[in-house]
Structure formats: C-alpha cells, structure tokens
Amino acid sequence: MPPLGDRRMYLPRIAAPRWVVFADFDETYLAHDGSPERRRDRRSLEQLLLEEASALGLVFGWVADGPIDVVAATVGTHGLRVVPHFIASSWGAELDFFTREEGRRPVAEWDARVAQSGFSRARVAAALDDLLRRGVHLIRREQAGRRIDSYMFQPSGRGRHLEIASILHKVAERHGIGVHVYPCHPALGEPEGAYDVDFVPRGVGKRQVADFVLDRLGIPRSRALGFGDDVGDVDMLSTVEHGYLVDNATDDARRRFSRTAGASYARGILDVIERRIERVRL
C-alpha cells in the first residue's frame, strides 16, 4: 500500500470519543474535479478537524467503495493533507485506524470476523463462470484488492439492469460471496449507463462496518453522522441518526433518501458538523 502518512498530518487521538462521522470518500469528501473552490472547502474541513476534533470528542473516518491501495493513490494524486482516524475500504471489508505514532493499525477483531466469510478469488472465479453460462459477461476493472474484486457491466436494453442485478445477487449468494451492484459514476470518468459490480466477503457493507465502529467506540447512533452521494451510501446513512446526502448526490440516491446537507462535497460535511456538533460542545 502506498503510504498515507509521511509528510501528511494525522488527526489527534481522541481519549473520550463522543461523536463519530462516517464520510463516503469519492465525490463526497473528495471532489474529483479538483476545482479551487472544492479544494478550499476541503481544507476548511481539514482545518476544523485538526483544531477541533479533540475538544469535540470527534472521531472522523472515510468509508470507501474501493480497496485501500486505490484510496491511498487517490490521496497522493489530489494532495490530501490530513489522514483520518480510520478508513473502511473495499465496502468495509478492510478497516484500519491511523495515528502518527503507530501509522496504520488494522482492526484484528474485524479482520477475524470478515475472514470467517470464506471470501476467495476461487469463489469469485466460480461465480464468473456461472454468470457466463447465464449469458452475463462482466468487464474486469483494474482495482482488485485483498477483499474486493471489481467488474463492470453494460446493460444491452431498457430495464435489463434489473434482471442482471437480480442474477448477480443470486449467483453471488450461491457461491458464498457478497456483491454490490450500483450505477457507474460519470464524475469519476466512468461510462454513463453502465454498472459497477464489486464482489466482496458475504455480509460486508458500509452499514455493517458503521455498526461495528459505533459498537467498538461505545458511541450511540444519536451521536453518529453519515455522509454520502450515491445509492451505495444509503444503508449507511440510514443506520446513523444524522445521515445526509451532500447536495451533489445522484438522482437515484435522492429518490431513496431525502435528507441533504445543504451544500456539496466537503462544504456540506463541514456545515453539518458545525450545526450539529459545535453547539453542543462539552
């Protein structure tokens, strides 16, 4: 994994956590267009986290679709300055906490739980063969990780994606693995109308890792915030009491979840934190 630290800044240790924030990474925390306005907003959020996290008892983390290596490479490409308290990558299949003193620290309890699912490349390969026999061909994406294998499919006709999504879930279940199927994101340079297909360990998702982190930190849902931009984030937003779509969210996500942050990307996260948390500082 490329280093996340080195010349970057780590958030302070939180001795007595009182709040936790779960932020989807791509197109929620990070705006890939790299515009000056978006960079300024992100740096304002970073500054608040560096200066106020200790006083607020605030633990902040990214929850990413892709594997940790892809997240780390994106951090370098976009010059992100601050390493969060934790990163849940590969749809939560991997969970790491970060400190200046110790660097990256995988969570052994979570690793053991996920390992029990029996996820393997052999199971994914068997599922792909099964899909081919059913006439479903997936295009491999170059972002496989330890606990994720990523593909794409292009529906051949109107409504075909619903049929194929159903087949994907049935085949994945048959082979003892999990799968996330969701629309590709044109803002990330992905083809419009196509769908991402991520095979992961069974029972793993953003909601499950959020539940685990809340339990581990001893924080109730009433003191948990979540932010996302697409349909893959909706379960996570629903499991915390204060879930928000940033205002650049996709139309599909807005049809499934109504509460919005009032601003886009990092500005939306920053504004909600200031509204929901600073005013109740202890």
From TrEMBL:
GO molecular function: magnesium ion binding; phosphatase activity
Keywords: Hydrolase
Domain of life: Bacteria
Pfam family, any one: Hydrolase_3
SUPFAM superfamilies listed in its UniProt record: HAD-like
Cellular component aspect of the GO annotation: cytosol
UniProt xrefs under InterPro entries: HAD-like_sf, HAD_sf
PANTHER family (UniProt xref): KANOSAMINE-6-PHOSPHATE PHOSPHATASE (PTHR10000:SF57), PHOSPHOSERINE PHOSPHATASE (PTHR10000)
Name this polypeptide is given: HAD hydrolase family protein
Native source organism of the sequence: Polyangium jinanense
Higher taxonomy: Bacteria, Pseudomonadati, Myxococcota, Polyangia, Polyangiales
